[in-house]
Automatic annotation (TrEMBL):
<dbReference type="Pfam" id="PF03982">
    <property type="entry name" value="DAGAT"/>
</dbReference>
<keyword id="KW-1133">Transmembrane helix</keyword>
<feature type="transmembrane region" description="Helical">
    <location>
        <begin position="21"/>
        <end position="48"/>
    </location>
</feature>
<comment type="pathway">
    <text>Lipid metabolism.</text>
</comment>
<protein>
    <recommendedName>
        <fullName>Acyltransferase</fullName>
        <ecNumber>2.3.1.-</ecNumber>
    </recommendedName>
</protein>
<keyword id="KW-0256">Endoplasmic reticulum</keyword>
<dbReference type="InterPro" id="IPR007130">
    <property type="entry name" value="DAGAT"/>
</dbReference>
<comment type="pathway">
    <text>Glycerolipid metabolism; triacylglycerol biosynthesis.</text>
</comment>
<keyword id="KW-0319">Glycerol metabolism</keyword>
<keyword id="KW-0808">Transferase</keyword>
<keyword id="KW-0812">Transmembrane</keyword>
<comment type="similarity">
    <text>Belongs to the diacylglycerol acyltransferase family.</text>
</comment>
<keyword id="KW-0444">Lipid biosynthesis</keyword>
<keyword id="KW-0443">Lipid metabolism</keyword>
<keyword id="KW-0012">Acyltransferase</keyword>
<keyword id="KW-0472">Membrane</keyword>
<keyword id="KW-0325">Glycoprotein</keyword>
């Protein structure tokens, strides 16, 4: 295989974009182990004057992630995030105005490998979110276990992330006066194993918890589809029933983490590496589904709203796929 190197005359702006995206990928993969390692080292080398005050403060601050977190406009405005957004680039498209006196749950699809569109469009001050939805505050939900790790939790909260727990979601969508948006990547890590270019398989049939919470709190549901999400990486073929898929799903069940064997390009060449391909991402926010507050929803009510949500999601995909280069014969597959 002939290696295709990055041209030497590549503009500085594009090089900075590549570095920005690389640091994000590395952070995504290593933030948990690195933060855990730092915490252990502070204890092993007896830096008590650092870890004792922090542990005391952590004790009193333990519930903060599930109470809306603690975002930092300074961190969300780092220049590195502007280069990150421009690399792909990222776009946020609104199809309908939302009522600022209501709270909403956005269901984000597909997960892709890293849910890049969700992070870039709903966590960073360089996105078009405030332009499109000026009266709202977004809360992107992520793995609960990450918010139990010292240091890691502080960084994630500073970017506006909160746990994907019942308590956390309820806190966001029960705000009096509205104006909050809870963004949930519904397919989760399991869906990342189906994140192949040109494939649109969503894990939805057993994802009904968000519907029940929407009913309990009267939060309107909004399907969101991120076109281009699955094109950022290639993944080693892992069809259902293969030994690789079996191993990946076993790991997912035992640890909660999926391990898609993905690859894209490198820093100085285009043939292999963990830097995602430079593909545009168009995150389209669909029409809201009105939800009447039902403190004690029945299974029938939950199932009915879940079916309505999937139908609206399919309509959103079919209405917009032609604009973003997806052939007309392509359709969503729910599993």
């Amino acid at each position: 295989m002939k290696i295709e190197f990055v041209p030497l005359n590549t503009p500085l702006a594009r090089r900075l974009q590549t570095v920005a995206v690389l640091q994000w990928v590395i952070s995504f993969i290593l933030i948990g182990p690195v933060c855990t390692g730092i915490s252990v080292m502070l204890i092993v080398y007896n830096y008590w004057y650092i870890y004792i005050p922090y542990l005391i403060w952590l004790y009193f601050d333990w519930q903060t992630p599930e109470q809306g977190g603690r975002r930092s406009n300074w961190v969300k405005s780092w220049t590195v995030w502007r280069h990150f957004k421009d690399y792909f680039p990222l776009h946020l498209i609104k199809t309908q105005d939302l009522n600022p006196r209501q709270n909403y749950i956005f269901g984000f699809h597909p997960h892709g490998i890293f849910a890049t569109g969700a992070f870039g469009n709903f966590c960073l001050n360089y996105s078009d979110f405030k332009k499109q939805f000026p009266d709202f505050t977004p809360y992107l939900h992520s793995l609960v276990c990450l918010f139990k790790l010292p240091i890691c939790r502080e960084y994630l909260m500073s970017l506006g992330l909160v746990p994907v727990s019942k308590k956390s979601i309820s806190h966001v969508v029960s705000k009096d006066g509205g104006g909050n948006i809870s963004i949930i990547v519904l397919g989760g890590a399991r869906e990342s194993l189906d994140a192949h270019p040109g494939k649109y398989t969503l894990c939805m049939h057993d994802r009904k918890g968000f519907v029940k919470l929407a009913l309990i709190h009267g939060a309107s549901l909004v399907p969101v589809f991120s076109f281009g999400e699955n094109e950022l990486f290639k993944q080693i073929n892992n069809p259902e029933g293969s030994w690789l898929r079996f191993a990946q799903e076993t790991l997912k069940k035992s640890t909660g983490f999926a391990l898609p064997l993905c690859y894209a390009r490198g820093i100085f060449q285009y043939n292999f590496g963990l830097v995602p391909y430079r593909k545009p991402i168009y995150t389209v926010v669909g029409r809201p589904i009105p939800v009447r507050r039902t403190p004690h929803p029945t299974q029938e009510q939950t199932d009915q709203l879940h079916q309505t949500y999937m139908e609206e999601l399919k309509k959103l995909f079919d209405e917009h796929k032609g604009k973003y280069g997806i052939p007309e014969h392509k359709t969503l597959v729910f599993k």
